[in-house]
Known about the structure:
Layout: H1 7-17, E1 32-36, E2 39-42, E3 47-50, H2 63-75, H3 85-95, E4 102-108, H4 111-126, E5 130-134, H5 143-146, H6 150-153, E6 165-168, H7 185-202, E7 207-213, H8 228-238, E8 242-246, H9 261-264, E9 271-274, E10 285-290, H10 291-298, H11 311-326, H12 329-350, E11 354-360, E12 363-371, E13 376-377, H13 379-391, E14 394-395, E15 397-399, E16 405-408, H14 416-439
Parallel strand pairs: 3-14, 5-6, 5-7, 7-8, 8-9
Antiparallel strand pairs: 1-2, 2-3, 4-10, 9-10, 11-12, 12-13, 12-16, 15-16
Bound molecules: 4'-deoxy-4'-aminopyridoxal-5'-phosphate (PMP).
4'-deoxy-4'-aminopyridoxal-5'-phosphate (PMP) binds at residues 110-112, 115, 138-140, 213, 217, 246, 248-249, 275-276.
Family: Belongs to the class-III pyridoxal-phosphate-dependent aminotransferase family.
Protein name: 2,2-dialkylglycine decarboxylase
Organism: Roseovarius aestuarii
Amino acid sequence: RYQPVNREDVLKERREHFGANLRLTYDQPVMLMRGWKHHLFDEWGRPYLDAYNNVPHVGHAHPRIQAVAADQLKRINSNTRYLHPAQTEFAEKILSKLPDPLSVCFFVNSGTEANELALRLARAHTGGKDMITPDHGYHGNTTGVIDISAYKFNAKGGVGQPDWVQLIEVADDYRGSFGRDDQDRAEKFAALTDTALDNITKCGGKLAGFIAETYPSVGGQIIPPKGYLAGVYRRIRAAGGVCIADEVQTGLGRLGEYYFGFEEQGVVPDIVVMGKPIGNGHPLGVLVTTHEIADSFAQGPEYFSTFGGSTLSCRIGKEVLDIVDDEGLMENARIMGGKLLAGLRDCEREFDVVGDVRGMGLFIGVELISDDNTRAPGTEIAAYVKNRMRDVRILLGSEGPHDNVLKIRPPLTIDEEGCEMILHSLKQVLQEVTIRQGMG
Ligand code: PMP
């Protein structure tokens, strides 16, 4: 139980005791004390609609998660050096969702850590060091994976591009080099990999692999053209590299039609990385790979993580995946995502500032522009819309190289009323934008 708290006091203390680059969202930050499904409640009990957070995948404060966590904490919470059926049951559940030959699981504590491990596995298996990755990706916050996160290393004050990383253009067919009117755009974007491979050869490097978010999220909620990853993977494998799919944002049913994004792209990765939603808020990351790659890694020193694969984590992770199945949440993502996308496409027709609406299931981007002819990014418009939506108590984010893409990514529990609320409020805010622009 908390005593009544003053938001301003918490803000002041936070500014004193935390680094300034630990950012808060919104001009007027929110303080959230409770959650339930896709609803959030602030310090006064006022409700907000969560249209942003992908971590509470099966909904905030799910009673089944509370129950298994409490049950396991009463029994034991130990590590992978001892046998426990919760660990193998969790692995079995994950593997039931993945195609052959993906059959070996590693449990870690975050998406970052899973990507770190993916780098080690790729290097152990190939003997190479060099990585190829899209030019606006994010894979985590540690020294190792910042180096493959162009979004961070290229940012102001970032560490810069390491010599062992080659970047290829994000396959964005709205704003990138090849547009939607080009039938061959998937292959043309994929062919950019050839230059990256040539560069590695020229520099005397050796390829370890390719890593990408299956649908680039910080890149602007991009849905690459169908067949894109197949073209990239073919080239990477021909050059002896390992293909890593970061499914932290796209996995576990969010896309509605597909449990994992790579299925839509018609590929089977060598390594799949999961994070955020798989623990529904409990810190948990998972890496799945082939026996062949795991065996190469096993030639090296012992692998161990104190908390990764703890009994508690495994109980929670399995429960999350069971809930997705039991509550039909992937199907809900398909239906609700369809409703949202249809309503957002109406907005695209109605408002000039909406340049593009794209998405699948509950992974949605709305690209805002300030000029319909040039597609000049509507960065300030996006900031305005995001903050006004917060005023009417709907939480969503903004993303993309120009920070002009509204990011809609609610828990999979969202219902028709929630979708209506988002669409109704967004239309009102976009009307405000139109009026302001008219006056400006
Ligand atoms: N990969 C992707 C695609 C992500 O979006 C994130 C987190 N936003 C991560 C990796 C890192 O996950 P974590 O913050 O849990 O370490």
